[in-house]
Amino acid sequence: MNCTPKFPSPRRNLAYTQEDFHFCHLLTKTRRRVGKSCSQDQTASQRLPCKMGSVSMATPVQELATDGQDPSERYNYGGSGGGALNASVPLVEIPTVDVGRLISSPSAANHELQKLSLALSSWGCFQVVNHGMTNSFVDRVHEISKQFFDLPKEEKHRYIREPDSIEGYGTDMIVAENQTLDWIDRLYLTLNPPNHVQLKFWPEKPETFRETLQEYGVKLGELNQILLKAMAKSLDLEENCFLDQYGEGALMTARFNLYPPCPRPDQIIGVKPHADASALTFLLPDKEVGGLQFLKDNEWFTVPIIPHALLVNVGDQAEVIMSNGVFKSPVHRVVTNSEKERHSLAVFCIPSAGQEIKPAEGLISETRPALYKKEFGVPKTKAAYHKDPTSVRLLGRLFAF
Ligand SMILES: O=C(O)CCC(=O)C(=O)O
Ligand SMILES: [Fe+2]
274 CA to middle of ligand 2, Å? Predict the structure, then answer.
């Protein structure tokens, strides 16, 4: 079977290349990451290549977990001031949006729009149900992730990330010598635009991997359109005003995340606190194992699992530029546990790199001027967006794509 992704061709060339995008991403991470020196306390098998300025990778966490060795100090996130990472964190119901209702009669839609508007301006995230994908299809997406990470290591290593790239199979990227590492292995792939798809990183096993991921990308593209229109309507704006900012050649990237059981969940983190740099992120969390937490009013909350639901969160592009600060791009993290591995799949939707993104007209007035300057679609640090770089609200955040 020919599984080459068949995406529509972009109508014009991108002003920025994927490499520019990656470079910007790496700079962001390099500036933001803090932690301990890599020379501390490593056994030979855990010795980590540390190449400042280029991307390097460590031994996959899955292999460390199987070896049963005590993880090196480079994974120790303890002492971050927040107490034991596995201390109890309250569960909180974040708003749930029913997409079927959102696109049905105006009265049913209005109710959902109100929920959506509240979710976007308070939590910056919401659970999406009735999203048009069957449970069995969502299960297939879960399965390809699990089946890929369950492959023998030699097979997975065929897709290993290359130096200076973020695409492929690997660990938390090493971009700074003193970086504390996340307890995570990843497979990172570009889904769109078609001329940026690097099929050599798309696993051939399991056999259903490529076609399932491709289909998932198409479905998320449709959902992204529905939600962007609804987000505009929830603010009484013209329904295409956000969608139009994506432009031709919008970027969609997928990150399969594996968090193996962790021997020190009180001190080792799955993903450090960060905000996504995308416009919107579609997360398919594990159906059984929790760990995702959101920060609200300086307190961490655990997200409950709703099997087969997607969790959508606003990224910095949608907060700082498109919505002029009305939508919130939430800080979130993933904690580990010692018993069970956890899987998730994050898909990041990012306006075309050549597209100028700016606040919707209707969100700017004399009393509420544009908070941020216009930018092109390449995601940057929040500081880079700000009109006055000295007054960044959230300096010290980490960013992820
Ligand atoms: O694994 C999760 O639930 C969240 C992952 C995440 O935040 C990310 O990949 O940006
Ligand atoms: Fe994230």
Answer: 6
Helix 106-122 and helix 209-234: axis angle, to 10°? 90
Q: Looking at the whole model, is its pTM more than 0.90? A: no
Residue type, 335: V
Q: Which range, 32-46, 341-355, 377-391, has the best average confidence (pLDDT)?
A: 341-355
Q: How far apart are CA 52 and CA 7, in angstroms?
A: 36
Instruction: Tell me how far apart the alpha carbons of residues 144 and 141 are, in angstroms, rounded to a whole number.
Output: 5
Q: Which atom of ligand 1 is nearest to the CA of 348?
A: 10
**What's the 370 CA to ligand 1 centre distance in angstroms?**
30
**Rounded distance, CA 229 to CA 185, Å?**
34
Q: Which atom of ligand 1 lies at the shortest distance from residue 286's CA?
A: 3
303 CB near ligand 1 (under 6 Å): no
Instruction: For residue 162, give every residue at least 6 positions away whose Cβ sits within 8 Å of its Cβ, in sequence order, or none.
Output: 168
Ligand 2 center from residue 276 Cα (angstroms):
5
For the complex shown, is ipTM > 0.90? Answer: yes
- pLDDT higher than 60, residue 181: yes
Kindly identify the ligand whose nearest atom is closest to the C-alpha of 303: 1
